[in-house]
Design brief:
heterodimer; A: 367 residues; mainly alpha; 17 helices; 2 strands; B: 448 residues; alpha+beta; four-stranded antiparallel sheet; two-stranded antiparallel sheet; 19 helices
């Protein structure tokens, strides 16, 4: 009898201890909070502030265009649209919390734009931007269609249905600003909460940031900007699927410029470089170095950065007009894709392995 | 020799350890099914995926859609019946069949723990766990307070096999000489209170836990067998399993092992537990004790001995089958499953598939998320038989889409225990030409 109670009570004590929880700031010696603070305060929030300034400026030029619908004002809209689109490249990877909740990324940058859906929406004047069927009828790609893609745009805006087109333009930009404010304000109000969540669970800030970064590199960057147009997933090339398709027709360089800007954002995030200047702070790079992640004599972080650089150089070497590159010599794009791809196993396997980040929560016994 | 075997087979002992084991097993199973259900894993694992990975030889096990819930309910009811000892034989057979079917449905969630339950429940079919303190006793109006010794010993033997093979598997250079993968896992547990930032970061702790774990597995069955060390050993069992539960997401398994280890205690110990249970159900038991149940001698079917002999020979040989393959078993994983290799490796992979269309002379890559859930993709990416099965699935899928003359190639990178990731599958080999078998998988590139 006595024995049973001894055994049971010890078991209960041990189980009880296991369940204990406290709110100390955790670390394995590496200061994860410093990493989160640097990424949040010096990259994410400044990038959002910059982005929302740009989208507000865009809205102002659209208002001006609505007031005075002429080619000169349309040109202004096009310029401000590109500015905002460039700024967007710095925040697309942070698909976290509010952004994830409201499907911000999909609403802002699903391309190719669904032009027939847009036309339908314009004329019917009834649509729900929260409906997934309308993701490709809003955001930057749809603005691209509306301001760069309409043939004889200015005559349409001044034509019989001009008012409807202007109204849709206004609806697009005000939705962008509404959503952006929601996400930006949450980053600011939730900042303290976000940076203090440094534990190692599937829902902690660092794990989410890292997973989203890798997901973005693989999908938003590698697949959407290069892989899909090059036909990597379809066998046949899809040049109309490049980013900023309509603007690229006249500029002959928009898609490549946006891709390179996105790569700058990727490099800055990985190395913890501030959004507004070139100061370097705590980052995944620093964390990997701290963990002594080496790779055939070199550090894993160096290998990753070198792979990034090779990929970036390959994009740089492409024709300024990606559309032209696809149509004339798509092989170069496939080679570039492979060079971008080379970083994926390094991030997904080697980096995640070293950080030992929990991705899925399900019972496992390590086999 | 023959005489002593005969003598052993005919030896009888008190049945109460079997009773406690039955109740513990039934309740643990009931709890783990409810837990599995409440976490939404039935939906996530058995209903959401459009494609399921199956075991070699069991491809005929087909998903049931929503009807899978019926199987879980059946499994839960039979667990409860086992615990109370009502229609025991029918209940344990039902449990074994339903549980095993569920496990066979999806290879991605293979866990040694689940396999242990399949094997154990098969064994329990042949053991008289309802011989006393069961509802069956009331219905049949007879009980057996003593049972053949081998019935209890066979459970001990099964547990011994699990521990000793788990211990033998830990005798490898990664585990003992480099404290891998614990060196990777433990520091990432920095968020544990008290020990997280201190002990879990220490090199000597990683080594102590590696060696300690190996010695624990190898010695614990013997420490439990001898009366003098038994209580100490049981405390070790509790400590070890609870500690692993705190460190790793291994579900209910630690508790199952703790409850199972009670079987090593003698009848006196179990009678005390039964007496406590009797007190708890006092009002009913008073009335029950007035019913006069006949105590009869338990006779076992001699054929059962032969079934169990074959069963244990298989249990002893299956974990050794990896010896017929060359190379690092953690890398090629041939003979890895069903061998009590637990917590031995940190393996991560990234595998994509290239479909070559010979008619159009062009190729494209598959986006795995179109067919697999993230968990399936993760598991598929570093296990060769998964990669092969999925490649064949892709072949069938694209042939049905009108691509007639295609070849499927894997581009796979895998990292084992913190080594730099390296190419895993020969990228030049058309996987559609490979049939899964027990033959050496030559298309796995060797670990550098």
């Amino acid at each position: 009898m006595k024995k049973i109670f001894t055994v049971l009570s010890i078991a209960i004590i041990i189980v009880g201890c296991g369940g204990a929880d406290d709110n100390d700031i955790y670390s394995d010696g590496f200061d994860r909070n410093a990493l989160l603070i640097n990424i949040t305060d010096n990259i994410i929030i400044p990038a959002y502030n910059n982005f929302s300034t740009k989208t507000n400026e865009l809205e102002n030029t659209i208002d001006q265009f609505i007031a005075e619908t002429n080619q000169n004002n349309l040109d202004l809209v096009q310029t401000k649209w590109l500015d905002a689109y460039m700024a967007w490249q710095h925040i697309e990877m942070f698909d976290i919390n509010m952004a994830e909740e409201i499907n911000f990324r999909k609403k802002m940058n699903s391309y190719p734009a669904n032009s027939s859906r847009i036309e339908l929406n314009v004329l019917s004047e009834s649509y729900d931007f929260n409906d997934p069927n309308h993701y490709a009828a809003q955001g930057f790609p749809s603005l691209d269609y509306m301001i760069n893609g309409l043939q004889n745009g200015i005559t349409i805006y001044n034509g019989a249905d001009g008012g409807k087109y202007l109204a849709y333009l206004k609806a697009l930009i005000s939705t962008i600003n509404f959503n952006t404010n929601e996400v930006k304000n949450e980053w600011i109000s939730n900042r303290d909460n976000f940076i203090s969540s440094a534990e190692n669970t599937a829902t902690s800030s660092l794990n989410k940031l890292t997973n989203d970064f890798i997901f973005y590199y693989e999908k938003g960057f590698r697949a959407n900007k290069i892989g899909i147009p090059a036909g990597v997933f379809s066998g046949s090339k899809l040049p109309q699927n490049i980013e900023a398709y309509y603007h690229n027709i006249s500029s002959n360089n928009t898609s490549k410029t946006l891709a390179l800007e996105a790569f700058t954002a990727i490099n800055k995030f990985f190395s913890g470089v501030h959004f507004n200047n070139s100061t370097e702070g705590s980052s995944l790079k620093e964390y990997l170095n701290y963990l002594n992640a080496t790779d055939d004599g070199d550090t894993l972080s160096n290998v990753i950065i070198a792979t990034f650089n090779t990929a970036e150089a390959a994009i740089n070497d492409l024709d300024d007009d990606l559309m032209n590159q696809i149509n004339t010599d798509n092989y170069q794009l496939l080679v570039t894709y492979d060079k971008i791809q080379a970083a994926v196993p390094l991030l997904k396997v080697d980096m995640i392995g070293h950080l030992s980040i929990d991705i899925d929560y399900i019972d496992a016994d390590g086999d | 020799m023959i005489l002593s075997v005969k003598k052993y087979i005919n030896a009888y002992t008190d049945s109460s350890p079997l009773v406690v084991f039955r109740i513990g097993f039934g309740l643990m199973m009931l709890f783990s099914i409810i837990r599995f259900w409440s976490k939404g894993w039935i939906e996530k694992i058995y209903i959401e995926p459009s494609f399921h990975f199956t075991y070699y030889g069991f491809e005929w096990v087909k998903p049931l859609g929503d009807k899978i819930y019926v199987l879980f309910i059946l499994c839960a009811i039979s667990s409860a019946l086992i615990a109370i000892g009502l229609k025991y034989k029918l209940a344990i057979i039902t449990f074994f069949l339903s549980f095993t079917y569920i496990e066979l449905l999806e290879k991605t969630i293979y866990l040694n723990h689940y396999y242990f339950i399949c094997v154990l429940s098969f064994l329990l079919i042949f053991l008289p766990l309802n011989s006393s303190f069961s509802i069956d006793n009331l219905i049949n109006n007879k009980k057996s307070n003593s049972v053949p010794r081998w019935t209890i010993d066979s459970i001990k033997l099964m547990l011994g096999i699990v521990y000793i093979y788990a211990g033998l598997a830990k005798i490898n250079s990664d585990w003992l000489l480099q404290a891998l993968p614990l060196k990777i896992w433990l520091p990432s547990k920095y968020d544990l209170p008290i020990i997280g930032e201190t002990l879990m970061q220490e090199n000597w702790v990683h080594f102590a836990m590696s060696w300690g774990g190996m010695l624990y597995d190898l010695l614990i069955p013997f420490l439990l067998l001898y009366k003098r060390t038994r209580t100490f050993a049981f405390l070790l069992v509790v400590f070890f399993h609870v500690f692993t539960r705190v460190l790793f997401p291994i579900g209910v398994f630690p508790y199952i092992m703790i409850i199972s280890a009670l079987i090593f205690f003698d009848a006196k110990f179990h009678k005390k537990i039964i007496n406590i249970l009797k007190k708890i159900i006092n009002p009913i038991s008073k009335r029950l004790s007035q019913i006069n149940i006949q105590n009869v001698k338990f006779y076992s079917n001699k054929k059962i001995i032969w079934v169990l002999a074959i069963f244990f020979i298989l249990q002893l040989t299956i974990p050794l089958r990896h010896l017929s393959y060359n190379g690092n078993i953690m890398w090629h994983e041939q003979g890895y499953r069903f061998s009590w290799r637990v917590m031995l490796m940190e393996k991560l992979g990234y595998t994509t598939f290239k479909i070559l269309d010979n008619d159009k002379n062009q190729f494209f890559y598959v986006q795995n998320e179109e067919f697999l859930t993230s968990y399936q993709e993760k598991q598929m990416s570093f296990q060769p038989d998964f990669i092969l099965e999925y490649a064949h699935f892709l072949g069938k899928h694209f042939k049905s889409k009108g691509f007639e003359n295609i070849e499927v190639f894997a581009e796979s990178y895998v990292s084992l225990n913190g080594r730099r990731s390296q190419m895993y599958i020969d990228p030049e080999i058309n996987l559609l030409n490979i049939k899964d078998s027990f033959k050496n998988k030559y298309w796995i590139l060797p670990l550098k």
